[in-house]
Amino acid sequence: MNGILLPLLILGAILLLLPLLGIEGYRLRLLSLLFMWVALAGCWNLMSGSTGYIDFGPVAYFGVGSYCTALFMIKGGFPFLLSVFIAGWVCAALSLAIGLSTLRLQGAYFAIATFAAAEALKQVVLESDRVLGIDFFGGAHGLTLPSPPPGIFFYYVMLFFMGLVASLTAVIQKSKLGYGLRAIRDAEQAAELTGVPTLQIKVRAYILSSSLIGCIGGVEAYWLTYIIPDDVFNVMRTIQMVIMTLLGGMGTILGPVIGASFLTLISEFLGAKFVYDYLIFVGLVIVIVILLMPQGIIGTLVKKRGKSPWLF
Predict the structure, then answer these.
(1) Residues of the chain with pLDDT under 70
(2) Is the distance from CB of 215 to CB of 72 less than 8 angstroms?
Protein backbone atom coordinates (compact mmCIF):
# COMPACT_ATOMS: atom_id res chain seq x y z
CA MET A 1 0.00 0.00 0.00
CA ASN A 2 2.93 2.30 0.75
CA GLY A 3 4.06 1.96 -2.89
CA ILE A 4 0.96 3.63 -4.23
CA LEU A 5 0.44 6.15 -1.43
CA LEU A 6 2.25 8.91 -3.34
CA PRO A 7 0.36 8.28 -6.64
CA LEU A 8 -2.93 8.29 -4.68
CA LEU A 9 -2.05 11.59 -3.01
CA ILE A 10 -1.18 13.09 -6.42
CA LEU A 11 -4.44 11.79 -7.87
CA GLY A 12 -6.35 13.28 -4.91
CA ALA A 13 -4.66 16.65 -5.45
CA ILE A 14 -5.55 16.56 -9.16
CA LEU A 15 -9.18 15.75 -8.38
CA LEU A 16 -9.29 18.64 -5.90
CA LEU A 17 -7.94 21.05 -8.52
CA LEU A 18 -9.99 19.89 -11.53
CA PRO A 19 -12.96 22.27 -11.02
CA LEU A 20 -10.53 25.16 -10.61
CA LEU A 21 -8.90 24.22 -13.93
CA GLY A 22 -12.12 24.67 -15.90
CA ILE A 23 -13.93 21.32 -15.59
CA GLU A 24 -17.64 22.11 -15.48
CA GLY A 25 -21.07 21.17 -16.82
CA TYR A 26 -21.52 17.55 -17.94
CA ARG A 27 -17.98 16.46 -17.07
CA LEU A 28 -18.27 17.84 -13.54
CA ARG A 29 -21.61 16.07 -13.07
CA LEU A 30 -20.22 12.80 -14.46
CA LEU A 31 -17.28 12.88 -12.06
CA SER A 32 -19.60 13.67 -9.14
CA LEU A 33 -21.78 10.70 -10.13
CA LEU A 34 -18.71 8.47 -10.41
CA PHE A 35 -17.52 9.51 -6.92
CA MET A 36 -20.96 8.73 -5.52
CA TRP A 37 -21.02 5.21 -6.98
CA VAL A 38 -17.46 4.49 -5.87
CA ALA A 39 -18.48 5.51 -2.34
CA LEU A 40 -21.69 3.42 -2.42
CA ALA A 41 -19.91 0.33 -3.79
CA GLY A 42 -17.19 0.84 -1.17
CA CYS A 43 -19.81 0.93 1.60
CA TRP A 44 -21.34 -2.33 0.37
CA ASN A 45 -17.88 -3.89 0.09
CA LEU A 46 -17.05 -2.76 3.63
CA MET A 47 -19.72 -5.10 5.02
CA SER A 48 -20.46 -7.76 2.41
CA GLY A 49 -17.06 -7.94 0.73
CA SER A 50 -15.29 -8.34 4.06
CA THR A 51 -17.65 -10.87 5.64
CA GLY A 52 -19.12 -12.74 2.67
CA TYR A 53 -22.63 -11.84 3.87
CA ILE A 54 -24.45 -10.73 0.69
CA ASP A 55 -26.60 -7.76 1.70
CA PHE A 56 -29.51 -7.06 -0.67
CA GLY A 57 -30.97 -4.25 1.42
CA PRO A 58 -28.53 -1.29 1.43
CA VAL A 59 -30.94 0.75 -0.68
CA ALA A 60 -33.16 0.92 2.43
CA TYR A 61 -30.58 3.19 4.11
CA PHE A 62 -30.08 5.18 0.93
CA GLY A 63 -33.83 5.88 0.88
CA VAL A 64 -34.11 6.57 4.61
CA GLY A 65 -31.11 8.91 4.42
CA SER A 66 -32.71 10.74 1.48
CA TYR A 67 -36.04 11.18 3.24
CA CYS A 68 -34.49 12.12 6.60
CA THR A 69 -32.37 14.82 4.97
CA ALA A 70 -35.34 16.13 3.00
CA LEU A 71 -37.68 16.17 6.01
CA PHE A 72 -35.16 17.86 8.32
CA MET A 73 -34.52 20.54 5.70
CA ILE A 74 -38.14 21.10 4.64
CA LYS A 75 -40.07 20.67 7.88
CA GLY A 76 -37.33 21.37 10.42
CA GLY A 77 -35.55 24.16 8.60
CA PHE A 78 -32.20 22.54 9.38
CA PRO A 79 -29.11 23.33 7.24
CA PHE A 80 -28.04 20.71 4.72
CA LEU A 81 -24.90 19.38 6.42
CA LEU A 82 -26.61 19.05 9.80
CA SER A 83 -29.53 17.24 8.13
CA VAL A 84 -27.15 14.76 6.46
CA PHE A 85 -25.33 14.22 9.76
CA ILE A 86 -28.58 13.46 11.59
CA ALA A 87 -29.73 11.22 8.72
CA GLY A 88 -26.55 9.18 9.17
CA TRP A 89 -27.33 8.66 12.84
CA VAL A 90 -30.94 7.71 12.08
CA CYS A 91 -29.65 5.08 9.64
CA ALA A 92 -27.17 3.88 12.26
CA ALA A 93 -29.98 3.36 14.80
CA LEU A 94 -32.18 1.65 12.20
CA SER A 95 -29.37 -0.63 11.02
CA LEU A 96 -28.65 -1.60 14.64
CA ALA A 97 -32.24 -2.82 15.01
CA ILE A 98 -32.28 -4.62 11.65
CA GLY A 99 -28.73 -5.94 11.95
CA LEU A 100 -29.20 -7.50 15.38
CA SER A 101 -31.99 -9.69 13.99
CA THR A 102 -30.88 -10.39 10.40
CA LEU A 103 -27.15 -10.93 11.05
CA ARG A 104 -27.98 -14.05 13.03
CA LEU A 105 -29.00 -15.56 9.67
CA GLN A 106 -26.60 -16.80 7.01
CA GLY A 107 -26.45 -17.27 3.25
CA ALA A 108 -29.64 -16.83 1.25
CA TYR A 109 -31.70 -16.29 4.42
CA PHE A 110 -29.71 -13.15 5.27
CA ALA A 111 -29.98 -11.88 1.67
CA ILE A 112 -33.75 -12.42 1.60
CA ALA A 113 -34.25 -10.84 5.04
CA THR A 114 -32.36 -7.65 4.09
CA PHE A 115 -34.20 -7.44 0.77
CA ALA A 116 -37.54 -7.81 2.58
CA ALA A 117 -36.59 -5.12 5.10
CA ALA A 118 -35.80 -2.69 2.28
CA GLU A 119 -39.09 -3.37 0.52
CA ALA A 120 -41.00 -3.01 3.81
CA LEU A 121 -39.44 0.39 4.48
CA LYS A 122 -40.31 1.48 0.95
CA GLN A 123 -43.96 0.57 1.53
CA VAL A 124 -43.96 2.42 4.87
CA VAL A 125 -42.80 5.62 3.16
CA LEU A 126 -45.12 5.08 0.19
CA GLU A 127 -48.34 4.27 2.05
CA SER A 128 -48.09 6.00 5.46
CA ASP A 129 -49.67 9.26 4.32
CA ARG A 130 -52.65 7.49 2.73
CA VAL A 131 -53.23 5.11 5.65
CA LEU A 132 -52.82 7.72 8.41
CA GLY A 133 -54.47 10.56 6.49
CA ILE A 134 -51.50 12.91 6.85
CA ASP A 135 -49.15 14.76 4.53
CA PHE A 136 -45.63 13.91 5.70
CA PHE A 137 -43.71 11.72 3.23
CA GLY A 138 -45.55 13.02 0.16
CA GLY A 139 -46.75 9.54 -0.87
CA ALA A 140 -45.95 8.48 -4.44
CA HIS A 141 -45.38 12.14 -5.39
CA GLY A 142 -42.39 12.43 -3.07
CA LEU A 143 -40.80 15.59 -1.71
CA THR A 144 -39.17 18.65 -3.23
CA LEU A 145 -36.10 20.03 -1.48
CA PRO A 146 -34.87 23.65 -1.40
CA SER A 147 -32.80 24.93 -4.32
CA PRO A 148 -29.27 23.46 -4.21
CA PRO A 149 -25.93 25.27 -4.57
CA PRO A 150 -23.94 24.96 -7.83
CA GLY A 151 -22.72 21.54 -8.99
CA ILE A 152 -19.16 22.18 -7.80
CA PHE A 153 -20.42 21.91 -4.20
CA PHE A 154 -21.65 18.36 -4.77
CA TYR A 155 -18.46 17.49 -6.64
CA TYR A 156 -16.45 18.18 -3.49
CA VAL A 157 -18.99 16.55 -1.15
CA MET A 158 -19.05 13.33 -3.22
CA LEU A 159 -15.24 13.42 -3.50
CA PHE A 160 -15.08 13.71 0.29
CA PHE A 161 -17.31 10.65 0.80
CA MET A 162 -15.35 8.63 -1.78
CA GLY A 163 -12.10 9.44 -0.01
CA LEU A 164 -13.64 8.79 3.40
CA VAL A 165 -14.98 5.34 2.46
CA ALA A 166 -11.70 4.29 0.77
CA SER A 167 -9.65 5.51 3.74
CA LEU A 168 -11.90 3.77 6.25
CA THR A 169 -11.68 0.53 4.27
CA ALA A 170 -7.87 0.72 4.23
CA VAL A 171 -7.69 1.45 7.97
CA ILE A 172 -10.20 -1.29 8.87
CA GLN A 173 -8.35 -3.87 6.75
CA LYS A 174 -5.33 -3.50 9.03
CA SER A 175 -7.29 -3.23 12.28
CA LYS A 176 -8.59 -5.76 14.77
CA LEU A 177 -12.06 -5.26 13.27
CA GLY A 178 -10.72 -6.12 9.80
CA TYR A 179 -9.07 -9.32 11.01
CA GLY A 180 -12.34 -10.27 12.70
CA LEU A 181 -14.33 -9.62 9.52
CA ARG A 182 -12.00 -11.79 7.45
CA ALA A 183 -12.14 -14.53 10.07
CA ILE A 184 -15.94 -14.49 9.74
CA ARG A 185 -15.67 -14.72 5.96
CA ASP A 186 -13.16 -17.60 6.00
CA ALA A 187 -14.54 -19.73 8.87
CA GLU A 188 -17.19 -18.13 11.06
CA GLN A 189 -17.85 -21.10 13.32
CA ALA A 190 -14.15 -21.63 13.99
CA ALA A 191 -13.75 -17.92 14.74
CA GLU A 192 -16.65 -18.06 17.18
CA LEU A 193 -15.18 -21.12 18.93
CA THR A 194 -11.88 -19.26 19.41
CA GLY A 195 -13.63 -16.38 21.14
CA VAL A 196 -14.18 -13.90 18.30
CA PRO A 197 -17.41 -11.93 19.01
CA THR A 198 -18.75 -12.53 15.51
CA LEU A 199 -22.21 -10.98 15.92
CA GLN A 200 -20.79 -7.83 17.50
CA ILE A 201 -18.22 -7.44 14.71
CA LYS A 202 -20.79 -7.96 11.97
CA VAL A 203 -23.18 -5.44 13.55
CA ARG A 204 -20.42 -2.82 13.85
CA ALA A 205 -19.50 -3.19 10.17
CA TYR A 206 -23.19 -3.18 9.17
CA ILE A 207 -23.89 0.03 11.11
CA LEU A 208 -20.85 1.80 9.68
CA SER A 209 -21.74 0.79 6.12
CA SER A 210 -25.44 1.69 6.49
CA SER A 211 -24.89 5.09 8.11
CA LEU A 212 -22.49 6.13 5.33
CA ILE A 213 -24.95 4.97 2.66
CA GLY A 214 -27.66 7.04 4.41
CA CYS A 215 -25.46 10.14 4.33
CA ILE A 216 -24.73 9.67 0.62
CA GLY A 217 -28.47 9.25 -0.02
CA GLY A 218 -29.06 12.56 1.73
CA VAL A 219 -26.46 14.29 -0.43
CA GLU A 220 -28.00 12.95 -3.64
CA ALA A 221 -31.49 14.04 -2.50
CA TYR A 222 -30.33 17.65 -2.12
CA TRP A 223 -28.36 17.44 -5.37
CA LEU A 224 -31.42 16.30 -7.37
CA THR A 225 -33.86 18.44 -5.25
CA TYR A 226 -36.64 15.90 -5.76
CA ILE A 227 -37.16 12.41 -4.34
CA ILE A 228 -39.84 9.74 -4.76
CA PRO A 229 -39.99 6.30 -3.05
CA ASP A 230 -39.77 4.36 -6.32
CA ASP A 231 -36.43 5.99 -7.07
CA VAL A 232 -34.57 6.24 -3.75
CA PHE A 233 -35.74 2.75 -2.65
CA ASN A 234 -35.21 1.23 -6.12
CA VAL A 235 -33.61 -2.22 -5.81
CA MET A 236 -31.56 -1.48 -8.93
CA ARG A 237 -29.36 0.74 -6.76
CA THR A 238 -28.51 -2.30 -4.64
CA ILE A 239 -27.83 -4.41 -7.73
CA GLN A 240 -25.51 -1.74 -9.10
CA MET A 241 -23.51 -1.69 -5.85
CA VAL A 242 -23.19 -5.49 -5.96
CA ILE A 243 -22.18 -5.63 -9.65
CA MET A 244 -19.64 -2.81 -9.30
CA THR A 245 -17.98 -4.54 -6.36
CA LEU A 246 -17.97 -7.93 -8.08
CA LEU A 247 -16.46 -6.42 -11.23
CA GLY A 248 -13.69 -4.73 -9.28
CA GLY A 249 -13.04 -7.47 -6.73
CA MET A 250 -14.90 -8.21 -3.48
CA GLY A 251 -13.06 -7.67 -0.22
CA THR A 252 -10.35 -5.45 -1.73
CA ILE A 253 -9.74 -1.72 -1.22
CA LEU A 254 -9.43 -0.81 -4.88
CA GLY A 255 -12.07 -3.24 -6.17
CA PRO A 256 -15.08 -0.92 -5.67
CA VAL A 257 -13.07 2.02 -7.08
CA ILE A 258 -12.18 0.14 -10.27
CA GLY A 259 -15.57 -1.58 -10.64
CA ALA A 260 -17.69 1.54 -10.04
CA SER A 261 -15.51 3.69 -12.31
CA PHE A 262 -15.58 1.10 -15.09
CA LEU A 263 -19.35 0.53 -14.98
CA THR A 264 -20.24 4.23 -14.63
CA LEU A 265 -18.06 5.28 -17.55
CA ILE A 266 -19.04 2.37 -19.82
CA SER A 267 -22.75 3.05 -19.09
CA GLU A 268 -22.35 6.74 -19.96
CA PHE A 269 -20.44 5.93 -23.16
CA LEU A 270 -22.88 3.27 -24.36
CA GLY A 271 -25.87 5.38 -23.26
CA ALA A 272 -24.69 8.17 -25.54
CA LYS A 273 -24.10 5.82 -28.51
CA PHE A 274 -27.16 3.56 -28.11
CA VAL A 275 -29.86 5.61 -26.42
CA TYR A 276 -32.58 2.94 -26.37
CA ASP A 277 -30.55 -0.30 -26.34
CA TYR A 278 -27.53 0.57 -24.23
CA LEU A 279 -28.60 -1.62 -21.28
CA ILE A 280 -28.28 -4.69 -23.54
CA PHE A 281 -24.67 -3.80 -24.32
CA VAL A 282 -23.93 -2.93 -20.68
CA GLY A 283 -25.25 -6.37 -19.70
CA LEU A 284 -23.08 -8.05 -22.34
CA VAL A 285 -19.98 -6.20 -21.10
CA ILE A 286 -20.69 -7.26 -17.50
CA VAL A 287 -21.17 -10.92 -18.52
CA ILE A 288 -17.95 -10.95 -20.58
CA VAL A 289 -15.90 -9.35 -17.79
CA ILE A 290 -17.24 -11.77 -15.17
CA LEU A 291 -16.63 -14.79 -17.44
CA LEU A 292 -13.05 -13.70 -18.18
CA MET A 293 -12.30 -12.45 -14.66
CA PRO A 294 -14.48 -14.34 -12.16
CA GLN A 295 -12.49 -12.94 -9.23
CA GLY A 296 -12.95 -9.38 -10.42
CA ILE A 297 -10.44 -7.08 -12.09
CA ILE A 298 -8.28 -6.61 -8.99
CA GLY A 299 -8.54 -10.30 -8.02
CA THR A 300 -7.34 -11.34 -11.47
CA LEU A 301 -4.40 -8.92 -11.40
CA VAL A 302 -3.35 -10.25 -7.99
CA LYS A 303 -3.54 -13.83 -9.24
CA LYS A 304 -1.44 -13.08 -12.33
CA ARG A 305 1.20 -10.95 -10.64
CA GLY A 306 1.46 -12.84 -7.37
CA LYS A 307 0.96 -11.35 -3.95
CA SER A 308 0.45 -7.58 -4.07
CA PRO A 309 -0.62 -6.38 -0.63
CA TRP A 310 -1.41 -2.85 -1.76
CA LEU A 311 -4.20 -4.18 -3.95
CA PHE A 312 -6.02 -5.26 -0.80
Answers:
(1) 1-4, 305-312
(2) no
